[in-house]
Amino acid sequence: MRMLLSLSTEDRDMEAQPGYGEQVRSVGREPDDFAMEVSVRTPSELDERIIGAWAELEQRSVEPNAYLSPWFVLPALKHLEPRVPVVVILIERKGVVSRDLVGLGVYETVRRSGRIPMAHLRAFRSRHSYLTGLLLDRDCASEASRAYFRFLRRDSSWHGVEVTVHPTDGQFGAIMTEAARKEDVAWYEYGRSRRAILMPAKCGEDYLRESVSSRELKDIRRRKRRLEELGTVTWRALAGQEVDARCIDRFLDLEHRGWKGEHGSSLRSNAGDEAFFREMATHFADHGRAIFTELAVNEVVIASTSNFVSGSGGFAFKLGWDPQFTRMAPGRLNEIELVRNGGSVFRDLDYVDSGAAEGSFIEDLWPDKRTLVSGVYASTAAARAVLGGMNHLRRLKRRLPFGS
Fold first, then answer.
1. Is the pTM of this model over 0.85?
2. Do 165 and 281 have their domain in common?
3. How do residues 112-149 score in pLDDT, each as one tens digit?
């Protein structure tokens, strides 16, 4: 599958608004000898050149997103069996002698759904993905986003794009909102949430005292003393290629213990999930972008976390601990040490996304938040009419007396 377009120089009502993205015609001060080309590929059509350019684009994207890294997406597609066919949208800037990848998104192709009863795209999200979005080169993000939306508007085979847990604040959100407004792509929002993030620049003892109650800190110190009665307690952060096969094995073993293993929700409970994690974590480690933390007693690791880096952002993935030490709260102790030492562990990062749902325990330790939205970009008149009509019916239904 290959399509090209060259462009020269849940319970809430879905409210029609200007969306996030814009399109391109070589706007701003881009030279006339540049053009944007948008193409659609299947994963099997991605060659070494494209994958390499994808990895480079991820590192300079205006919005960091480890879940859109080729080192995450490709293992996910390989081992986690997507529900429906997946396509990759590429946005390339073509010069006289150069061709640069400046935008990329990964999508499921959907014939119809409860949200959009017509053919559309849905941002790819595996069962281990906690963020969707679009990679945009920071040097031409507005131009690339305009090319993206113009392509969607002109391609009659898809009537829109559904996105979930999608970034909306910061520069990325502003660029996408303005872009969709200019290209008459309507945004229908149906969900909004707040997610805990860690700000490394704030980390340390003062941050802990401000974030955690004195009672909680006292309890943590008590549990740590009980753990120290069993032997020498150490904490460490492993980065890059220090995250080797043994480190990954330790993490998988701890994440499988306790209730996750009992309920069949651990990575090790499913061969595909384990294979995905091993391949994904190894790729990130090989590129110096994996950070695991470990809490140990007498050099035996009893708690571990996995974290991955994309550009200037970090992404907490999963954690595990030995249930034999539950009374000492090893998982909690590990997280406390991460907050205490986050300034050095994540010194080059602006923030770390927790990947957690609202109400998670991590909010007690990571008080800062980011906003995520779920909704639909309607790129055709038909989609706007249908979604507008569905909105109207929902409002009418809510106004009717109970039982009518």
1. yes
2. no
3. 998 899 999 999 999 999 999 999 999 999 999 999 99
